[in-house]
What we know:
It is a single chain. The chain folds into two domains: about 5-110, no CATH class; about 175-335, Heat Shock Protein 90 (2-Layer Sandwich), CATH 3.30.565. The chain has nine helices and seven strands, in the order H-H-H-H-H-H-E-H-E-E-H-E-E-H-E-E. The protein has helices at about 5, 20-40, 45-70, 80-105, 115-175, 180-195, 205-225, 250-260, 300-315; strands at about 205, 230-235, 240-245, 265-275, 280-285, 320-325, 325-335. A hairpin with a 3-residue loop joins strand 6 and strand 7 (about 325-335). Helix 5 packs antiparallel against helix 6. Mean pLDDT is about 80; it is low at about 1-10.
Amino acid sequence: xxxxxxxxxxxxxxxxxxxxxxxxxxxxxxxxxxxxxxxxxxxxxxxxxxxxxxxxxxxxxxxxxxxxxxxxxxxxxxxxxxxxxxxxxxxxxxxxxxxxxxxxxxxxxxxxxxxxxxxxxxxxxxxxxxxxxxxxxxxxxxxxxxxxxxxxxxxxxxxxxxxxxxxxxxxxxxxxxxxxxxxxxxxxxxxxxxxxxxxxxxxxxxxxxxxxxxxxxxxxxxxxxxxxxxxxxxxxxxxxxxxxxxxxxxxxxxxxxxxxxxxxxxxxxxxxxxxxxxxxxxxxxxxxxxxxxxxxxxxxxxxxxxxxxxxxxxxxxxxxxxxxxxxxxxxxxxxxx
Length: 337
């Protein structure tokens, strides 16, 4: 058993990566504000003293950040108390070393031990507050990710049975009218489930999603025969582009059910898959019948896709619905996650 496994039942100190430019900027800014506040709270304000303290504090901050970046990889192996003690002691030792060096540079003959102790206490208070802030920030991030994962599990738990239910309905119709095609459809559906629906990830490669859509359309082609016509428009340079699992198939299913099967003469659906270096655009267009059929009843599938886009991308992805006199189009614009 590894040390990490031995400590699995205990809480650990966790904080974000503080070696990023944004985290370092935050640390430098907060530390400088603390220095300014310290000087303003004193009896007299001197620019030379401010410069001296600022230089010393920035050395402490940058050296401490470098040390904590190294220690961050070891935190999963330590208990919460051990992690806190090691990180806090590291910052304190670095602070004490910088203070002693700076004190020696200023006045090597007369050591101001009271000043060093006072400044060490201030460093300890501030470092404890910053470590606690980073720990709470990481806890909020972890909770947010857990909530997103839970929402995605619930949404995918709805959409996958929805896909299976509709596929089985198609096969049930084929059993009565075309038994041989029904057997082939069962084999095709089994292959689709093995390749696509066993994953627990929220994303799948674009090529895999398109393969699932083609398999679904083959099922519907057996049922609707020449009533269903599909026009593909593809411009794909990155087939491994991550897209949400089952994001295109529900839109195609809606187009088939409401834009083709609902019309006696059938119809054509247009599927466009276009990529730029920044986004992938998925578009499904179906005709609207003279009686207005072809644009209603898009309940579970479209709503599920829209909600999953909101969870996964926030406001970076778009789902646009357009309706004209004779066409109904749904377009997804997906950046890289």
